[in-house]
Structure formats: structure tokens, C-alpha cells
Amino acid sequence: MCILSLLIRIRCSMFQIMPYKSTFLTTIILFIFCTSCKKELVDQAIYDLVKTAESDLGMVVSAHPLASEVGADIIAKGGTAADAAIATQLALAVVYPRAGNIGGGGFMVYREGNGAVTALDYREKAPAAAHKDMYLDEDGNIIKDLSTKGHLASGVPGTVAGLYATHDKYGRLGFNKLIEPAIQLAENGFKLTKNEAKRLNELKEVFVELNGEDFPFVKASPWKAGDLLIQKALANTLRQIKTKGPNGFYWGQTADYVVEEMQSGNGIITKEDLSSYEASWRTPIHVTYRDYDIYSMSPPSSGGVALGQLTKLLEPMELSQYGFQSVESIHRIVEAERRVYADRAEHLGDSDFYDVPIDLLLDEAYLEERINDFSADSASSSASIVAGDFAMAKESFETTHLSVMDGEGNAASVTTTINASYGSKVWVKGAGFFLNNEMDDFSSKPGTPNMFGLIGAEANKIEAGKRMLSSMTPTIIEKNNQLFMVLGTPGGSTIITSVLQVFLNVVEYGMNISEAVAAKRFHHQWLPDQIMYEKEGNFDADKIKILESMGHKLRAVDHIGTVEAIMVVNDTMIVGAADPRRDDHAAAVRE
Ligand code: DON
Fold it and tell me: How far apart are CA 556 and CA 536, in angstroms?
């Protein structure tokens, strides 16, 4: 058992096909195999990262080892997948502050052991004083940085309301037990990884510009891996939440701090905006793909509709016959994506404000018609609207996903965000957390791309109290009516296509879940009219030449998405796969 747990700590994609209680011989063979595996550990020096783990008791996969372990421990103590998802999110708000949050929002798709699936929307809302032209100058042009940096960029946070809504419906352990690990991590500090130290050093200038020097994320000498980050103010805010529930965030001292912070800049969030915030239960988007039932997030995320459209467009194409990332497969997937993202730009927005034609967009006859101009030999042309370049190279985006399964068949797929890395970069003095810059997800000006290069129009215009359109795609998949897969990722506009590819990698190209997550990805979003592909993968010079000769334009990028996935293998074994691209970690539940 001891050797086995050691082995589980050395990630190896072979694990998922091995029975949990391996024989000694198998264990030895596995050991020899695994030690020869390519090292994927990103920050092994600080944390013992696990990229693939298995258990029949439950699994939590998230962006940070401390957070995943907090969640797994909650299940081991008798908590449900919902309890673990809450505790993991709260821990991420402390140890992964670039994206984990209480100052942002998110979405959850949840499946109970009895098969019932729901979706929770705790996306940020535009403050009451927000209006359609708030980021435009008198000539109607976008004012640079106004929707992305500083106080005016924030929507009203939804995370704390979302955590409590989750707990009210699906929680078993007391909320105080779920929040306590986060309080301890904030109070006593945690060690920074190399990535996190590097990011803090890069952001020092903007942090000081917006928050001054007297704040825990800035120090005189550069941060380095292993430094302790202590967040006393955040610990106090978490204690407020622990004792007062959602009121500890939306009313009283914390709300006062947020409003004071707003007033110290050009912010518009008021006490009323905070006290009136509520999370909303939604009907998840549900589509079928052969033997699979796919459940994903409904508006105000575009994720579920777009993933549904993509899978419905691709199902008849039988991609397995062409092979993984063959020219034929890439071309077909790209042509489907081009059409789906064009639909997204026109038709998707907050369904509380805009009549999103969900049924029509997922209608089989409509989709058949949508793809009937497809040519196997040449790329179609995206409309000639001038779209700006992706800001991807300049700005680092941050969202975070966690996937959870417990041993009772409950599963949570949660994607949560403050949008950019550390959101608006405004840290609420006194309360100790960063505010989101989610307002940039609205269409500030029709036809003008946001920081993800995404274009929008009427459906996603800014309105008071409205939720901005998202691409987040927390997804749960059943196979033959049994829980099969939980997955999701950060990555802005690339979220939808990353989730799609991991699914296709398993069901069309026969990969195991770790291979499917690790495989290099590509992405097309209609505008800009280009295929983004990850470097050092299958896009070699010959392939690029063929795709270009078909009319595609290509662009190499460092990485696309950071997927956290869990899959059930052989009906009982729960296999967690954390993305090797970063410090993500799969925590198996142990007795
Ligand atoms: O909701 C959205 O689609 C974006 N705010 C997500 C941002 C994101 O994924 C950034 N992360 N990598």
C-alpha cells in the first residue's frame, strides 16, 4: 500500500488502466515503467505534484496541490462532491489568488448519484450604475484599459453566493468545516511555487500602481519559490463569512471595505449591488453524442451551447477514421468551430435579458444547414469584419477549473474566474482579496473584440444587473447513463474548444484520460480567422503547408488551456488527470 501510494505520487498515464489493488509484480513493472516516464512535474521542488491518480473513493483535480488535497480530505471525512468543491474553491481563493477567488464568479454543473443534473450560475453582474457606453469616449471609441484594469472593470462578485447555494442544496458537512482549511492557509501562509513567484514579480509595477506598497503581494526583494505568502486580512474576511454566512460578504464590514475601495478609485459597485446579488439555478445544456450524454453550462455562459453545437456538427463526420490531428480532422473541427463562434457572437448573452435561441442553435436541421457549405478541400472564409489580434501574448489570463467525484456517484464540475490574472489587479484594502475584471466579457462596442479577440453585439451589450457572456464550460458526461467524465479548463475563448478536444481525444481517438488532457491542442474562433496551435505538437512544417494551401491561416502559441479531468474506468475506478502544463494536481481520496 505504501509503495502503491508512492507510485501514485509519480504520475504516469498508465495508472488508469491498472486495477487499484495491483499485485506486487505489477507494481514492480509499473515502477520501472513509470520512472522512465517523461518528467512532467512543473514545480516538484515545492509540492509533490500528482498528474494522474486513481481511487474508488473519490477524486479532486484542481490548479493547486494544497487545494486539491483539501477537497479530497473533505470527501474522506464524509463530505459530498459538493462539500469538496466548496472547500477546494475556498482554498483556491487563498493559494491560487491569480484566479481562485471570492471577488469573482463562476459556474457549476452538478450531478447527483441518482443521475439528476443541475447547473448553478454565480457569474458576476453589472452594477446598477453600469450602462452600454461606459467604456467609450465621446467619439464612441473604446477607452483603453478601462474595462480590464482598475476599479471600473469589476462586476458584482458572485462566488460567495454560489458557494452557499451549492451548500444549501447538496452540502452534508457544516460550512464551517469547509471554510476552515482556507482560513488556516490564509492565516499561516503557504509556499509559493516557482510559477506564482514569477507572476508576482512580473506584476509588481501594476500592483504598486493600484494598491501601493503596503500589501501582502508586494515586497522589496523579488519573490522566489518557497517564500511564504500570508494573507491576514483575507483570513479575517473568511472568518466573517464563516460566522455570518453570505452576509459576512455581501453586508457589513466586508461590503463596507468593497464600497470604500470602489470610492477610492473610479468604481461603481454599491452596497445595494452587493446586498441584492443572488446566484441562479439554471437548466444545464444537454446534448447526446452516440452513447454519451453531455451536460454543460447554459447562458450566461456560451460554453454549453457552443460545445453542444460542436459535438452535434462533428458527430456525423466520424472523426476517428481520419486520426488524431490529421489534416482531415483539424480541417473539419476548425470549420465547425468557425460557424459556432460566429453564432456565439450574434446570439449568445444573458438569457435573463436577451432571448437566446438555445433550442434553435442546437436544432439538428439548423446545424445540418449550417455546415452544408463545408468543403473537404478548402477553408471557408470568416466574414470580413476587422478583428483585432488576440491580446494573448501581452496579457496573461486566469480562470480556474476543478473537477470532483465522490464515491457515491456525485460529481461537481466548477469553473471560476476573476478573468485576467489577479482580475482588475485591485485588491480590496481591509478585506484582502482581488476584484475581478469581468466587465470586459461584455461587448463594450459591437464588433470590437475584447481581450480574448471575441466579438459581440446586442445580445451581450452592457445593461445594469446583467451577467456578461462567458466561455466557461464546466462539463459532466455520462456514458450509457452512468457517470463517465468530469472536465473543464480556463483559457478564455479557448475553453470551449479545449473541452471539446479532450472529449474527442477519448471517444474518437482512443486516448486514456491523461493522454487526452496532455495532448497538444488547437483553436479557431471565427474571428480572428486563424488556427492557433500549441508549439511542439503535431503541427509540423508539412502539415502547416497543407493547411495553408487549403486557405487556413495559422499561428503558434505556447499553450492552450489547463484541463482538469476525471474519468470513470471499468465502471468503478475513478481516474484523475491534472494538466501537465502547470502546477495542477490530482488528489485521490484515501481511507
Ligand atoms: O468567462 C469567461 O469566458 C472569461 N472571463 C474566462 C477567462 C479565462 O478563462 C481566463 N483564463 N485563462
Answer: 9
